[in-house]
Sequence to fold (838 residues):
Amino acid sequence: MKNIILISIGDELLNGDTLDTNAQWISEKLNSFPVKIHRKYTILDEKQPLIEILSQYVGKMDLILMTGGLGPTEDDKTQGILADFFKSKIIKNEEIYEKLKAYFIKRKGFYEEHNLDQAYVPDNAKIIPNNLGTASGTWFEKDGTIVISLPGVPFEMKDMMKKTVLPDLEKLWKTKEVKYTKHVWIVGIGESDLAKKIADWENSLDTNIKLAYLPKIGMLKLRMECFGKNKEEAENKVETAFDEIRSEIKEYIISENNTSLLDVVMQLIRKNKFTIGTVESCTGGYFSNTFTNIQGISEFYNGSLITYNYDIKEKIAKVDKKSLEKYGAVSEEVVYQMVKNGRNILNVDVCIAVSGLLGPEKGGEKEEVGTVFVGLAIHDTIQVHKLNVPYDRITNKSLVFNRTMHLLYKELKSINSDN
Amino acid sequence: MKNIILISIGDELLNGDTLDTNAQWISEKLNSFPVKIHRKYTILDEKQPLIEILSQYVGKMDLILMTGGLGPTEDDKTQGILADFFKSKIIKNEEIYEKLKAYFIKRKGFYEEHNLDQAYVPDNAKIIPNNLGTASGTWFEKDGTIVISLPGVPFEMKDMMKKTVLPDLEKLWKTKEVKYTKHVWIVGIGESDLAKKIADWENSLDTNIKLAYLPKIGMLKLRMECFGKNKEEAENKVETAFDEIRSEIKEYIISENNTSLLDVVMQLIRKNKFTIGTVESCTGGYFSNTFTNIQGISEFYNGSLITYNYDIKEKIAKVDKKSLEKYGAVSEEVVYQMVKNGRNILNVDVCIAVSGLLGPEKGGEKEEVGTVFVGLAIHDTIQVHKLNVPYDRITNKSLVFNRTMHLLYKELKSINSDN
Fold:
């Protein structure tokens, strides 16, 4: 098993200016190897903390991987600190020099000498090329520890990980020890009730199997992990253990292979050759934006009507004016019309409509803040559900989405079991 | 100045299952006090790393604030570790016991005894109530160090911070030393070019003023920080320094008070009493979803048409079929029609239309992946711009959004300077 420390560098990560999304992405990729990520440090762009961590762990860990602090400006100090620690000379790299020239000529038509400063790199590190930006990465080795430094810009870092770091680690770390991880998505039961339900089973688990409960908004992920001499051994241990509990929690299981609720729903839509569209009021495009993040969705997602005000509900979604006046926009009647008309207008098999009060204001509606009506139309079968969501505006959007996906999941499942 | 260490606890944060959004939020809030957040640790839910950090920093830091590891299940170990470290007895808290009963009765109609396990808390800590969940927080004090433990669920943690932790820290930390931070949003110049442009100024800055470049997607934030005996002193130092450079970079400055480009655009829309709507193809609701995250947007955002496929573009946005066939959906001609018709259909003063190829596939379009046409209509004035975006599907959505906000910003600015 390989032992790893991660470091995220940057004042902006500790003062709240910037959300660190790199560490999660890196952890996920590294976890395909048999690794233990012991901890992650988030530190200021200063000499002392980085030197302290390097002094403590070089010679002890297999890998120290850091991101950030490699920009072209004076507040970026990582490369200088590493050069000091590894006693590097800084030399001009002709290949990078020419690439930087080309980069700036392509982007702004010309370059200035200061644009090429980042062609100067340590002489005793392997250089990790950056095809999307200007800061190269470095790969040092000392006393059995690999020390990798990458830029903090997420798309640059990811590209360098995929093209160089991960393939190179794969070659180095060919090993017989393998980790098997099983992710089970659970919807419809809370964390403490599930824990109670499976407590005896959990207590009797092989000590090599590590179980974790990962609560998400409106759902839960169970993770089981086990190391073994080969994949079969590790997989067999985990799957045999899960076989003992599956039937007891069957009604809550959405998937056993880390497929999210959204992906399971999309698979069912695709399997039925359905098309889909939405008519959204309070969620304001959250559904359509989430759908269109999926590559290839254009095969079966037609479009959406975001009918945020009364006039647009009437004009675009053809909601009856009298119903709007009588019941308000947050009502079973109006959502029924939104989903029924929406299915025809968007020419889809499956339509979702949403209207509710996500807060904090109530506006002129009759219902209380937190009330949301969700309409589902699958061909001529129409249902309207009333939900209650207790959180802030933005969390409520994702809770409404996840609850709606669960409602749709149950409908699509029952269609498929009928066939 | 108060010295702080943050700790995020949870296996899921180190194996890539969960993105840690808590630390950023906490850092931002704590930075309203005169603090230095030295570092953040992300650690496994195990005894050794937490004890190591507590042993190292209790007695040295003013505050150690940790989130996570407080759930009701066996993999949550933080409370036990803290009780050991602070030699606590675990006692039943009657108030929490009754609150937990009420919580479960409200949610599922009844409670079971195991639901009330979290009413057992350390006897020598101040309890931080949790009104949205089941795990209480704790506030220990030892050798001048406050040690706070909060649940990792973001909305529970935020509620507890706002209602208890931040007000209590404010009472304790009333001090004369004050930090002044100035954030300047910059659009239209890259990091290295800006750094070159202002290098002499940067080198001559008062050493008490700390300058940082924070690159974002399609834009850049400059941060200047300074501590002083009072707000006036610190503010005066920073503002006097910025006065020297303002005119040189004026054309790139969007705001000097940390107002984002989006917020500046929304202020201009509001000031002009304009209404706004969008017709989106490739961005699939990213614009409408982002707009509707803003509280109070319903005053001037009417709605959107998400016209993802050809038929819907024709049927809903009234794009001429012949133009679609002749030029393709990703064309100046089609986006011109989308924005012109969209403005009428949505009955708005300002309409934005977007159609492009965000990748990775090209579909049947004539243009290359990365090409995006953006249409802007302000009353009868219509423009169509051609952009090129080089990243992945999801990053491209935000880059298109930011570039479009900049185009709209320039138009709205010129309207306002005309008046």
